[in-house]
Amino acid sequence: MPIKFIFFRILIFSVCFFFSGCVSQKMISMPPDVVKKHIYLASQYFQSGQTAEAISRLHIAISLTSIPEILSQAHGLLGVIYQYQQEYTAARIEFKKALEYDGHNSEVRNNYGSLLYEKKQYAAAADQFKLVAADLTYRLREQAFENLGTAYLQMGYKKLGQEAYESAVRLKVQTPIANFKLAMLSFEDNDIETANRYYQVFAEYGHQTAASLLLGIRIARKRNNEIEKSDQYATRLAIEFHDSNEYQLYLYSKSK
Q: With 50 as the cut, is the pLDDT of residue 255 above it?
């Protein structure tokens, strides 16, 4: 899932023991553009693999703002970084903080759903993806529907998964994952022409994998035994994914 740029705040506390008249330090607020510069640098550090520097920049940014939307973005980016580091408890904390600051931040919510999915909490992930998909202003709604469909399939809800993928395709016809999944589901239902229609869109816009090439072989065989196309997919499967389980399944199917 795409990484979003986000902002974060650290509260600065003075320590008051038992002394009377202790005055708390107030947070130093800086103009949003200054804070965003730190966030931008953090994102650049993260994308170049310098996660410690990214986290440091985010802490600086957090200490300089009290704007909820910026804080939401910062905590959300920290969540992404901690998830990347497999610090899942810390990631969950940051995502929740981000959503407390701005419950309408669909980019953060989508990333939080991805964390829940990675931890195999599929129902909880689906709840997050549903909220993101319902946000008509979110620019990547098709991805939210793709994620929702995948979560539904993991829970065994094939019809709901198919409906979610169809929603993704309606929003963006060229969506590779949704087209591949719809091709797969249509093939399982023996609706070969529909499977082929979705598969051809996937083949044009997506990146072939061992699983997708094997599906292409199977669809081609069912469509009046399109030998040439089937052989093209098989050759690519043999060359690019020789050690894959899918290639072994293909060889087994030839021996039958």
A: yes
Tens digits of per-residue pLDDT, 25-71? 335 677 888 888 888 899 999 999 999 999 999 999 899 999 999 99
Cα–Cα distance measured from residue 208 to residue 238, given in angstroms and rounded to the nearest whole number: 13
Contacts of 49 (CB under 8 A, 6+ apart): none
Q: What is the pTM of this model?
A: 0.84
Listed in sequence order, the residues at least 6 apart from 152 whose beta carbon sits closer than 8 Å to its beta carbon are 126, 158, 160, 161, 164
Domain positions in the chain: 1-119
Other Cβ atoms less than 10 A from the Cβ of 105: the count is 25
CB 4 within 8 A of CB 76: yes
Q: Which CATH number fits domain 1-119: 1.25.40.10, 1.10.486.10, 2.60.120.1440, 3.40.50.300?
A: 1.25.40.10
Tell me, what's the pLDDT at 39? 86
Radius of gyration of the chain (CA): 23
CA 186 to CA 226: how far, in whole Å? Answer: 18
Each as own residue / partner, the long-range contacts of residues 25-34 (CB below 8 Å, 24 or more positions apart, any chain) are: 27/63, 27/64, 27/66, 28/63, 28/64, 29/64, 29/65, 29/66, 30/64, 30/65, 32/65, 32/67, 32/70, 34/64
